[in-house]
Each structure stands twice: as C-alpha cells, then as structure tokens.
Amino acid sequence: MNKDQVKGKFDQAKGKVKQEIGKATGDARLHDEGVADEASGEVQEGVGKLKDTVGSAVKNLGNRIKK
Question: pLDDT tens-digit profile of 43-58?
Fold first, then answer.
C-alpha cells in the first residue's frame, strides 16, 4: 500500500465521520463536506492502486528485458 492509498483510506474515513456528525447535528454543510471528502478519498485511493499496478508492470517488463 502506498501513501496515496493510505491517504485515500484516511479521507474516506474522515468523510464518513463528518457525514454522521452532520446527520446527528442537522448540519447539512458538514454532511456534504463529508460526502466530498469520502469521494475525494476514493479517487486518491484509486490513483494509488493505479500507481502500484503501473509500477508492477514496469518492474515485470524490466525483469523480462534482463532475461
């Protein structure tokens, strides 16, 4: 897991907490901010997964070239 994936997971969790607090307190702005944080975290986690995939593919290609 790389730093983008970790940050993405953190932002998703932070967003969920904000949503719940917003619901409990009736604060629509906080709830909506939580939705945005969660979505942003999902995107960032996806970027991290893509980086891992590309990195692995490049590494595998390098290993094949060395043979």
Answer: 999 999 999 999 889 9
Report the number of distinct structural domains present in the chain: 1
How far apart (Å, rounded) are the C-alpha atoms in residues 6 and 22?
Answer: 24
Tell me, what DSSP letter sits at residue 1? -
Q: Cβ of 58: how many Cβ atoms within 10 Å? A: 10
Domain residues for the domain of 13 are 3-66
**What are the structure tokens assigned to 5, written together?**
């994936």
Q: Read out DSSP for 14-36?
A: HHHHHHHHHHHHT-HHHHHHHHH
48 CB neighbour count, 10 Å cutoff: 19
28-66 and 3-25 helices, crossing angle to 10°: 170
Predicted TM-score (pTM) of the model is 0.83
